[in-house]
Inverse folding.
C-alpha cells in the first residue's frame, strides 16, 4: 500500500510535482537556469505536463487550464499523476512530493490519488515478485488547505480500491464463493463491520431459487454474505443497502459462451461484489455516520452436474416464477433473490452493482457505468455528482414501461431474457420487479476489468464502484 502523508515544506533534493495555473519560479525549488529555460520553452509550446529527469530527482510541473470544467481538470490531474508514477518507478524512485500552487485543495487530492492508484500491482503469484515490486512507496502532500481527515479518507479510499482490485484479479481456483465470503470476513475485522455468511443449507431454507439454480452446475457450494455497518450516530433511520453480483466464474453454463477468448476474463464476474465489499471497508474504516448493509449472493456458473437448462422454470425467493431461456443471463437470477431479501430492511435506497450485460459495455465502452432505476431525483443527482467527482460517471438509460413487454413469458411470470434490443435495460427491468423501494441498478460490465493499461486504472481489475460509493456516503 502506498503511503500518503502530509508535509509542511518542500525538500528540493527529492522528487516533486508542482500543480499550478502559471509557472512561477521559487527559490525553494532549487532549479538551475537551464532547467528554467527548458520549462519556459515547454510552456511556450503549450505543454501541460512538463517533466525534468535529473540524475538524483524527477521534477514535474502540471499546468492547469482555469477555463476547463473543474471535474475534467481533476481527471486530467489524476492522469498526469499516473504518468509521473510510471516515470518514478522506471527511475526506481521511492518518494515524491506534491506541491499545489492553486486555490483548489482537491487538486492535491486528485494528484495523490492518480499517483497512488497507478502504483497498484497484482504480482503476488509471480515467483520474482520482490524484484518487480514498484519502488514508489511514499507520497507527501504539501498543501496547507488539506486537512488530516481529507488525506486519511483518501488513503482509505485507495486502500479499499486496492482490495477490490485484488479480489477481481484472483482466479476462481484461488477465490471461489466460499473464498469470497471469507475475504469479506477478513475485511470486516480489519475495518469494523459485521459479516454473516449463509451456507447452502441456510440458502435452501430461505428458498433462494435463483441462486440455487445457478449453483446446480458447480461442485462448490454457494454463499450469501450479509455485511452491516451501523454506527451509534447514524444520520439515516433506514439503512442504505448495497447489493453486489458475486459470480466468481462464469462459463455461461449450458448456454456456453460461444466467442473466442470470451471466458478468459470471467473471473471478473464478481466485480460488483468486490466493489460493495470495498465500499463497506472504506465506510467502516472512515467511521462515516451512516448505516449501510451489503448483500452478496455468490456462486460460479458451470455446465456440470445437474446444471439448470434453457426452458427450466425457476421459483424465486419471492415465490414468482422465471422461464430460464439462457443460462448465461445468470447474474440477474442470483441478484433477484438478494433484492427480494433486501426488502426486510425497509431501505432508504438500494444500489446494486453488477457486471451484468455485454450490452452495457457495447453501449458506452469502459468509460462509465450504465445506470437506471426508481430512486428519487434527489438521490440520483447525488449519485451523479459523486460520479463526476470521482470520474466514475453514470449514464442513465430509460426505464420505460414498454421494455416490460419484452420479458413476458407464456408459461411463467417472466423470462430471464428480453430479446436482441435494449439488453442492458431489460436486465434492469427484470431486477426491478423484485424491489419495493428506491432502487438504482449500476451495470459496470464495461469498466470493471480492462485488458490494456488505462492511466491510473491500470490493467485488469479496476475496483470500479468503490470510489463513487465512498464519495456518495461521505457527502451525506
Amino acid at each position: 500500500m502506498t503511503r500518503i502523508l502530509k508535509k509542511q515544506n518542500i525538500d528540493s533534493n527529492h522528487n516533486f510535482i508542482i500543480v499550478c495555473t502559471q509557472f512561477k519560479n521559487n527559490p525553494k525549488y532549487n532549479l538551475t537556469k537551464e532547467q528554467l529555460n527548458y520549462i519556459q520553452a515547454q510552456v511556450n509550446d503549450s505543454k501541460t505536463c512538463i517533466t525534468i529527469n535529473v540524475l538524483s530527482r524527477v521534477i514535474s510541473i502540471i499546468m492547469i487550464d482555469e477555463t476547463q470544467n473543474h471535474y475534467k481538470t481533476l481527471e486530467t490531474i489524476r492522469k498526469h499523476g499516473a504518468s509521473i508514477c510510471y516515470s518514478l518507478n522506471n527511475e526506481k524512485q521511492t518518494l515524491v512530493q506534491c506541491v499545489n500552487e492553486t486555490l483548489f485543495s482537491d487538486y492535491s487530492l486528485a494528484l495523490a490519488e492518480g499517483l497512488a492508484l497507478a502504483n497498484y500491482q497484482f504480482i503476488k503469484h509471480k515467483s520474482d515478485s520482490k524484484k518487480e515490486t514498484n519502488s514508489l512507496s511514499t507520497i507527501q502532500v504539501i498543501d496547507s488547505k488539506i486537512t488530516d481527515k481529507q488525506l486519511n479518507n483518501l488513503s482509505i479510499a485507495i486502500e479499499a480500491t486496492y482490495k477490490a482490485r485484488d479480489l477481481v484479479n484472483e482466479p476462481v481456483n484461488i477465490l471461489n464463493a466460499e473464498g469470497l465470503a471469507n475475504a469479506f470476513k477478513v475485511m470486516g475485522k480489519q475495518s469494523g463491520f459485521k459479516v454473516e455468511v449463509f451456507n447452502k443449507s441456510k440458502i435452501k431454507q430461505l428458498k433462494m431459487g435463483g441462486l440455487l439454480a445457478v449453483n446446480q452446475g458447480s461442485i462448490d457450494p454457494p454463499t450469501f454474505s450479509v455485511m452491516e455497518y451501523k454506527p451509534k450516530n447514524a444520520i439515516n433511520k433506514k439503512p442504505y443497502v448495497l447489493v453486489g453480483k458475486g459470480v466468481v466464474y462464469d462459463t455461461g453454463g449450458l448456454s456456453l459462451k460461444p466467442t473466442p477468448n470470451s471466458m478468459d476474463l470471467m473471473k471478473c464476474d464478481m466485480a460488483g461484489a468486490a466493489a460493495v465489499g470495498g465500499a463497506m471497508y472504506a465506510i467502516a474504516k472512515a467511521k462515516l455516520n451512516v448505516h449501510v448493509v451489503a448483500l452478496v449472493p455468490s456462486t460460479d456458473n458451470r455446465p456440470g452436474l445437474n446444471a439448470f437448462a434453457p426452458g427450466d422454470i425457476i421459483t424465486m425467493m419471492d415465490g414468482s416464477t422465471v422461464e430460464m431461456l439462457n443460462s448465461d443471463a445468470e447474474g440477474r437470477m442470483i441478484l433477484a433473490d438478494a433484492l427480494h431479501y433486501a426488502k426486510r430492511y425497509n431501505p432508504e435506497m438500494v444500489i446494486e452493482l453488477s457486471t451484468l450485460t455485454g450490452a452495457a459495455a457495447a453501449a458506452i465502452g469502459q468509460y462509465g457505468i450504465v445506470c437506471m432505476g426508481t430512486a428519487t431525483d434527489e438521490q440520483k443527482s447525488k449519485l451523479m455528482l459523486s460520479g463526476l467527482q470521482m470520474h466514475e460517471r453514470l449514464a442513465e438509460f430509460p426505464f420505460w414501461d414498454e421494455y416490460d413487454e419484452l420479458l413476458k413469458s407464456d408459461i411463467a411470470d417472466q423470462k430471464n431474457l428480453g430479446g436482441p434490443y435494449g439488453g442492458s435495460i431489460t436486465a434492469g427491468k427484470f431486477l426491478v420487479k423484485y424491489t419495493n423501494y428506491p432502487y438504482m441498478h449500476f451495470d459496470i460490465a464495461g469498466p470493471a476489468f480492462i485488458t490494456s493499461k488505462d492511466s491510473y486504472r491500470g490493467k485488469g481489475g479496476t475496483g470500479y464502484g468503490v470510489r463513487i460509493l465512498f464519495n456518495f456516503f461521505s457527502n451525506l
Remarks:
- The first strand starts at residue 3 and ends at 6.
- The two ends are 27 Å apart (CA to CA).
